[in-house]
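Tokens for MurR/RpiR family transcriptional regulator. Go.
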Amino acid sequence: MGFFGFKNFDQLTETELTIYRFVANDIEKTAYMRVRDIAKEAHVSNTSVMRFVHKLGFNSFTEFKVSLHSAKLDQQKEQSDQSLSLHFIMKENFPQDIYEKLMVVADKIINADMVIYVGMGSSAALAEYASRQTAAIGINSFCIKDPFYPLSAQLQNTTNNVLITFSVSGRTPEIIGLLNDFVNNIDNTLVSITGNLESSLAKMCHYNLSYKTNEERIHHFYDMTTQVPATYLIENLLLRVRHLLQ
């Protein structure tokens, strides 16, 4: 569809198509041009411009200009919408072997005695959601949102646990401190879901489900970074767990 909603291009002459292409190529500029300016720039006559305007269904050049301004605003809005659109779930945002890693972790989960999800801030909400969904499919699970929770003491006499930690940066000191007790414990498998594969969290975990995203903060410390990639990973992981349990 053309920028005026015009569709019948076969009704336009070669000269009129030349004018149409000239206008469509830079609506923002031509919205402020006069008849003779368009004619000069498009290398056609003033009469050809007015014939083109009338053929498009406008009664006057002024009415045509109003439509141009409207088309310009629509174009700007479309460009703005595209800049704000979601581009998180794309192949380029994840490692090439992400689905193989998801399958390995899914297998660890179905063979675990307990699955513990860990997170702070917005990651805590995601950890809580993941724990609830895991419990719903019949797997022992709980969530840790308090980094000072005595998790090490609680798991002291347990074996075969999977700890899945959510952290965009992978650098949160409290989270690192919480997991540090389990790094050399063979009874616990550590998994990170993080946007930073080079982080301390990723390096201390046995398996990393990573993704690429830009960290965003407002007022210096409010984290506004999207959790869509992490949500996608946990949904995909639990889908694989359900298939393995069938």
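The mean pLDDT is 86.
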